């Protein structure tokens, strides 16, 4: 009793809050990232559980796949020997979107042909990244899906975004963060096409569009800004964990939080977000589940544990509310009338299976 | 265990920076008046600076890398028992600067006082000031690897850090002015969600110097510190950044142990 009580006191056990009546939920968003490596030798617990939950909410549900949808190098050519494996990885995710529901795939660095690390570690320059991401963008809507399901990649066609998706209770502002970090061509004549090209072409245009999207939020809407790359994380990409974490800080890799390109992106987006901070900044990239207090958003979520077997370490930061490390899982957001949002974290590993953390989220004015 | 080498040098009252720069080249002679603390000479030097007068704290808790520079404070208390129920008590106020969520630069100002009766004559000061500058950086955070009962969410992960410290103490207890320099490798395990519970060990290797106006003496010694830190205890009160540590610092000599408690707070900017 004594130690158990101490355990509960210091919060080492799962923490739950009362859940709303399902009929009172207006909108449900699922966040799952880095799900592009479903290992056929392992049980597909994460995607199966996601599919079951998404089916339960039906047409009021949206699944946000937070990038790295196809490991390791995005969508291979259809004549390639590993094309069948590309389809397998993608289809496993698309199947989780129920009839009437929506699945939105964000691009990640691996979807840009592994993105080109740059810096000390970076040999890869991924010259074909823009071409590869466009191929995935075209492929996703064409894949077989549950009847009535809608699946798409946003932002599409290698465009940086932001793309705004409005729901009754939530506004999604979606970004292709790899556009900022890619170590090769990110803009060409197709991007500049006035009719079918991108709506933004420069960093300045992107940040201004983000500001505009935040300002034009409808009353009663909560805002989620989402990209593959997080603005804060306690995982390896944040310079924590492992023997090389110390050196990665100075290695200037484009995929790490302290890399030059990444810092430029962080500073630019933070400056745009602070004009009207959103409720949530959601991302993947680090293969862990992290709920943190944000600086330019009320909360910063990292949900990059979509692939069993890829779980990684994540340091508990001062800003962390929950950290699930070396695990797989996803997050669920239930929007109820008013300004409250229920966050639930689900994880699946040898320790725990199912809901492990929940919290009512409110705008921290 | 302490090794005292003997070389005479002439050192006047020079500025602190000069003394710091010349420390590695200076060595030793015998100490002057008999210390009232009855500690061995090297240990007396270590026990008079924050390295030995206060106790080590747990590893730096990480913050987000976009926290370019955070500041915080630490209040420390340490007590070392001597013979005949005498003791040395020390108090420290530390300012911390945390850089990009990781490295910590600390400056400590402290005060050490002996118990009543530690000085038998009027020429003996029963208190002294002390100061320290310390740099600490986390080297390695391991994957979660150790299952800990009751902490069911995540396995414990380990950290190894590297610290460099330089300490100073003014004359007191009929001892000289002292300097110390140490290299410490804090090792720790961390578990817990809302509050992080971190048992830690801090093996150190320290050099100590004592000086009068004309002479330097030098010794060196291994120390082992340790304790337990509970980080983010302040979250219960809505005060992010508040930690509490209980620790010891041990040199393997009679009266070689300091026990202490530390309360630290780091300002964490939240929206």
What is the element layout, followed by pairings?
The complex is a heterodimer of chains A (365) and B (271).
Chain A: H1 2-9, E1 27-32, H2 45-57, E2 61-65, H3 83-94, E3 102-105, H4 129-139, E4 150-153, E5 163-166, E6 170-174, H5 178-181, H6 189-192, H7 203-215, E7 222-226, H8 245-248, H9 260-273, E8 280-283, E9 289-293, E10 299-303, E11 320-324, E12 328-335, E13 341-348, E14 353-361
Helix pairs in contact in A: 7-9
Chain B: H1 16-22, H2 41-48, H3 50-53, E1 69-81, E2 87-99, E3 103-114, E4 127-141, E5 146-148, E6 151-169, E7 177-184, E8 187-190, E9 196-211, E10 216-231, E11 242-251, E12 257-266
Describe this structure in words.
The complex is a heterodimer of chains A (365) and B (271). Chain A is α/β, with parallel strands linked by helices. Chain A has a single domain, classed as Metallo-dependent phosphatases (Purple Acid Phosphatase, chain A, domain 2, 4-Layer Sandwich), CATH 3.60.21.10. Helices cover 23% and strands 21% of the residues of chain A. Residues 1-5 of chain A have low confidence and may be disordered. By secondary structure, chain B is mainly beta. Helix content of chain B is 7%, strand content 51%. Chain B has helices at residues 16-22, 41-48, 50-53, and strands at 69-81, 87-99, 103-114, 127-141, 146-148, 151-169, 177-184, 187-190, 196-211, 216-231, 242-251, 257-266. In chain B, strands 1, 2, 3, 4, 5, 6, 7, 8, 9, 10, 11 and 12 form a 12-stranded antiparallel sheet that branches. Classes of the chains: A alpha/beta (365), B mainly beta (271).
């Amino acid at each position: 009793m004594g130690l158990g009580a101490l355990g509960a006191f210091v919060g080492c056990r799962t923490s739950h809050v009362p859940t709303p009546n399902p009929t009172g939920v207006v909108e449900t968003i699922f966040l799952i990232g880095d799900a592009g490596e479903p290992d056929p030798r392992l049980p597909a617990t994460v995607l199966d559980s996601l599919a079951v939950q998404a089916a339960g909410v039906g047409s009021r549900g949206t699944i946000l796949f937070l990038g790295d949808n196809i490991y390791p190098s995005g969508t291979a050519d259809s004549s390639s020997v590993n094309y069948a494996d590309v389809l397998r990885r993608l289809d496993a995710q698309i199947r989780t979107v129920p009839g009437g529901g929506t699945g939105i795939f964000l691009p990640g660095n691996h979807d840009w042909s592994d993105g080109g690390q740059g810096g000390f570690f970076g040999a890869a320059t991924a010259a074909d990244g823009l071409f590869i991401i466009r191929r995935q963008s075209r492929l996703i809507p064409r894949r077989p899906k549950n009847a009535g399901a809608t699946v798409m990649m946003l932002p599409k066609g290698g465009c940086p975004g932001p793309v705004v998706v409005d729901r009754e209770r939530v506004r999604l502002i979606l970004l292709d963060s790899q556009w900022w970090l890619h170590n090769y061509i990110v803009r060409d004549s197709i991007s500049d096409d006035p009719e079918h090209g991108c709506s933004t072409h420069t960093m300045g245009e992107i940040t201004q569009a983000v500001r505009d999207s935040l300002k034009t939020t409808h009353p009663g809407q909560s805002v989620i800004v989402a990209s593959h790359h997080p603005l804060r994380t306690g995982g390896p990409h944040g310079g924590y964990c492992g023997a090389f974490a110390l050196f990665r800080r100075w290695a200037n890799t484009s995929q790490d939080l302290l890399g030059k390109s990444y810092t430029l992106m962080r500073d630019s987006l933070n400056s745009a977000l602070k004009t009207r901070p959103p409720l949530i900044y959601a991302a993947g990239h680090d293969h862990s589940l992290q709920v943190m207090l944000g600086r330019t958003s009320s909360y910063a979520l990292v949900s990059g544990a979509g692939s069993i077997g890829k779980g990684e370490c994540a340091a508990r930061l001062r800003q962390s509310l929950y950290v699930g490390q070396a695990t797989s899982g996803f997050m669920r957001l239930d929007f109820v009338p008013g300004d409250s949002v229920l966050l639930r974290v689900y994880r699946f590993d040898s320790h725990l299976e199912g809901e492990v953390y929940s919290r009512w989220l409110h705008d921290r004015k | 265990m302490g090794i005292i080498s003997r070389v005479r040098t002439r050192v006047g009252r020079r500025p602190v920076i000069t003394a710091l720069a010349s420390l590695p080249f200076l060595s030793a002679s015998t100490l002057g008046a008999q210390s009232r603390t009855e500690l061995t000479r090297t240990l007396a030097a270590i026990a008079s600076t924050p390295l030995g007068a206060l106790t080590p704290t747990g590893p730096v808790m990480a913050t987000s890398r976009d926290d370019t520079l955070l500041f915080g404070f630490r209040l420390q208390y340490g007590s070392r028992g001597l013979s005949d129920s005498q003791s040395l008590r020390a108090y420290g106020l530390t300012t911390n600067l945390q850089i990009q969520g990781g490295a910590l630069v600390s400056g400590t100002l402290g005060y050490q006082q002996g118990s009543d009766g530690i000085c038998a004559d009027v020429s003996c000061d029963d208190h002294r000031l002390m100061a320290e500058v310390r740099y600490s950086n986390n080297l390695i955070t391991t994957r979660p690897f150790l299952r800990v009962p009751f902490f069911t969410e995540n396995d414990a992960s380990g950290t190894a850090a590297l610290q460099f410290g330089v300490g100073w103490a003014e004359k007191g207890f009929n001892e000289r002015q002292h300097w110390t320099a140490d290299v410490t490798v804090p090792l720790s395990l961390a578990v817990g969600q809302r509050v992080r519970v971190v048992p830690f060990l801090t093996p150190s290797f320290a050099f100590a110097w004592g000086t009068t106006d004309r002479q330097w003496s030098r010794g060196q010694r291994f120390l082992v510190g340790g304790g337990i830190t509970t980080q983010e205890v302040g979250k219960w009160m809505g005060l992010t950044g508040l930690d509490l540590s209980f620790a010891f610092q041990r040199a393997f000599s009679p009266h070689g142990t300091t026990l202490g408690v530390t309360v630290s707070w780091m300002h964490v900017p939240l929206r």
